[in-house]
Amino acid sequence: MSEYQNLKPIFASSVMRISKKESKLKFSNTITYDYLDLEKGNTWKNYKEFLNSPTNYNSELQLYWENLQTILDSEINKINEEEVFLKIIHCTIQFHDKTHPYVQWIVEFEGNYVDGQNTYENFVEDEILEYPIYSLYLFEKPLTVKKIVSSLKYNLGGSSRIVEYFGELNDRLEGYEAIFFQ
User: Fold this and answer.
1) Cα(110)–Cα(35) distance, rounded to whole angstroms?
2) By the 8 A CB rule, do 86 and 30 touch?
3) Contact criterion met (CB below 8 Å) for 30 and 103
4) Which residues pair with 33 in a beta bridge?
5) What whole-number distance in Å separates Cα of residue 110 and Cα of residue 63?
């Protein structure tokens, strides 16, 4: 995704918070991609040095923002059978240390709440994971999860309010996932 050619994605994670406000379901997702800077010493010593240029930093932010928004726009997401559209509201590039940058986005969307069972569905292309992934979904009270459909391994805990998804390198992510909750 980067103009800097020496980055390798090594891990992706997300934390999705789902809340009910009156007749709406509000979703806020913080997505983080961790990278390894291979530091091959081409034009720039490392990614951190590359980003010291404000032009490069702003260009990278725009590239990450646009690329993820394009991916989100290619997915189909539904809340209670109505398609919803995910929108990035923030993006940043930070560093764990010199060789481990990460990019973080905040994505929001909402849909209508119905009395009884609610459903969040995600339709994407099948893929083989190129790095491990982890996702945490937190359903705020009074919402509770009743059923999960996923090709990934998952745990349901926290009084049926917390779902953790796990994907390992080379796992197959199938194109349909759903969470049923009320």
Assistant:
1) 30
2) no
3) no
4) 12, 103
5) 25
Summarised one tens digit per residue, pLDDT across range 111-141 is: 999 999 999 999 999 999 999 999 999 999 9
For 60, phi then psi, to 5°, come to -65, -45
Contact 157, 166 (CB under 8 A): no
d(CA 67, CA 85): 16
**Long-range contacts of residues 174-178, Cβ cutoff 8 Å, at least 24 apart:** 174/126, 175/123, 175/124, 175/125, 175/126, 176/121, 176/122, 176/123, 176/149, 177/121, 177/122, 177/149, 177/150, 177/151, 177/152, 178/119, 178/120, 178/121, 178/122, 178/147, 178/148, 178/149, 178/150
50 vs 6: CA distance, rounded Å: 11
SS3 59: helix
**Six-digit token string for 142:** 């009074």
Polymer length of the chain: 182
Dihedral of the alpha carbons of 35, 166, 90, 60, in degrees to the nearest 10:
20
37-48 tens-digit pLDDT:
997 766 778 999
CA atoms within 13 A of residue 28's CA, in its CB half-sphere: 7
The structure's pTM equals: 0.94
What single letter denotes the amino acid at residue 61? Answer: L
Main-chain phi, psi angles of 100, to 5 degrees: -130, 75
